[in-house]
């Protein structure tokens, strides 16, 4: 898309450079730490799955086992690989034996580190090859079936029952949806494990599980085959299990995942250290799997005014872009978020919305921007709501957004019914068809309201990013600079799951993914001063 607004390229460069330095500082912090969720993800990528007799997922059982023995600073991989080598069994069998208290990993002799790393590389190769097969499968189906044109028509299902979700997802796909998202059950982002198997009793949504992913993938492929059009599946890997769900999505060929570096901190009160560490590994997995991420800047405008806080959305987009690049996720997979959330009673509000949407499109030209519909100012008047959604759709096609999450005229009343989605899809298809090339034909007046607004928002975003760079992202979050929400460095949920890496930390999957994605390897962890080493610790355990 050719630039339509005269934006100061020097200001855009300043914003991007500030965001790059902000992200780099946080990345240095991340490099020295891991989390229980990252380590559970390593186990899932090794092929470990299932639950123990009490229904606790085996990845949780193993990570807890190692953490109780104060050995997680080395990563969970060396412990499991060593046990697998010593007992000559698979990692899955190691997990099952730990779950039944048949073995204690701390009592086993240690193999040579070189041997452990050789086996780790082999396991990582096998695990990542499984993901690569699913990525190639998506690419093949896209070639064979084709897909809808951008902006993709994105709708949600949220019944709580995966079987009903499959029915509604197939219906939405037949009605014209390009992306079907399964909303997660209320509160799942705050539980520190991933439920196992098929679930039929969610609240406000359906639990994200690997079996549920598998069922929805099969349902949408069924329609895709019938329609001759690939249907993308979306779910949510935010929350305390962010990287685990990213891995499960990669293994089950999900196409889109909600994955935001800041959303969980601001809107779910998850500890900022935990979230930022988890997002790095989860984005690496998404990048490798060819999954488009969606970020959640649109949520800022539900707690702050959309006119006054517009620059915070742009600033966050810049930061999210840099975090994604550090994780090896290319711009073509960055569904950076923003929203049509200004008060509809505002004079020239539509012009301000156009300014925001066009500005984002020009600044992030390769990103399939995710445009969110009006929600905050929906009233329950379904006729007015339908008009608000129509104006949102017009802004989306005019400015060339990538993903259009369709608004529902009953937004303020209830979870959408099938016929609500049908009307929303008809609305979008009608406007997209009739205004497909509107943006090619209309230029914004130089110095006019739209251009001045975009320049103002960009300038404020630059000022904000330079301030965040000066004080650091952690301090900015503590001050409430984003979404008018304040969070503490050591407050929030999940801090106990953050672990400082020791001298011998090893994550074979990150090492191999970094190699395949052509990313620099992490520097050796500095380690804890109190680290006594694996062998010394093992001797201590034996004597105690």
Automatic annotation (TrEMBL):
Signal peptide: none
A Pfam family hit: Lys-AminoMut_A
A GO term, aspect molecular function: cobalamin binding
Record field: compositional bias (Basic and acidic residues): 516-526
Chain positions covered by the region annotation Disordered: 516-544
InterPro entries for the chain: Cbl-dep_enz_cat (IPR016176), Lys-AminoMut_A (IPR015130), Lys-AminoMut_asu_sf (IPR037086)
D-Lysine 5,6-aminomutase alpha subunit domain span: 5-510
Domain of life: Bacteria
Protein name (record): Beta-lysine 5,6-aminomutase alpha subunit /D-lysine 5,6-aminomutase alpha subunit
